[in-house]
């Protein structure tokens, strides 16, 4: 049993130990597992672009799957004053630019309200066997997910298998429906 602070440190270290090659292979394995999820009749898919400096899951493979299936792809831009995410439709004209935290995000575009989104791929550092996640601690995703419709499908992406239990979960934390690792799909 561990708290979020310990898990953040542990999982940042685990991630940093991955080679570029491992990172790519594991990201591809995750994308292949995503294909098995019962989500493909949905329309609006929200996805994050990886912060390469943090060695996040490379979501490019999932992006290719989504565009290959003609899905509406939604990306977010962070507003650090309010801790809100603003969502934009990914189009051929979308310009992506890294913000001051190295997060690649759309400059502007066609805004999409949270309640239209059907599926959200959620970035995380760690998760437990009950579907709770540890993010970077700013609360962007908990806030965003609380604005989505009740049946939105929340899918975490993780290089590593779940921790037994995150001890300091609180009520505002929103649980995942699935978490996909290179080895399996966890259903909560």
Question: Can you describe this structure?
Answer:
The structure is a single chain. The protein is of the alpha/beta class. The protein has a single domain (4-187), classed as Rossmann fold (3-Layer(aba) Sandwich), CATH 3.40.50. Helix content is 24%, strand content 22%. It has helices at residues 4-16, 20-34, 60-68, 140-147; strands spanning 44-46, 72-79, 84-89, 96-98, 104-106, 119-122, 126-127, 133-134, 153-157, 178-180, 185-187. The strands form three sheets. Strands 3-2-1-6-9-10-11 form a seven-stranded mixed β-sheet, sandwiched between helices. Strand 4 (96-98) and strand 5 form a beta hairpin. The chain is globular. The protein starts with a helix and ends with a strand. The mean pLDDT is 95.
Low-pLDDT runs: none
CATH fold type: Rossmann fold
Q: Quick one: overall form?
A: globular
CATH-level-2 architecture: 3-Layer(aba) Sandwich
Quote the average pLDDT.
Answer: 95
- What is the helix fraction of residues, given as a range? 10-25%
- Provide a count of the helices: 4
Which structural class should the secondary elements be placed in?
Answer: alpha/beta
List its salient traits:
two-stranded antiparallel ribbon, 188 residues, Rossmann fold, alpha/beta
Brief rundown of the structure:
The protein has helices at residues 4-16, 20-34, 60-68, 140-147, and strands spanning 44-46, 72-79, 84-89, 96-98, 104-106, 119-122, 126-127, 133-134, 153-157, 178-180, 185-187.
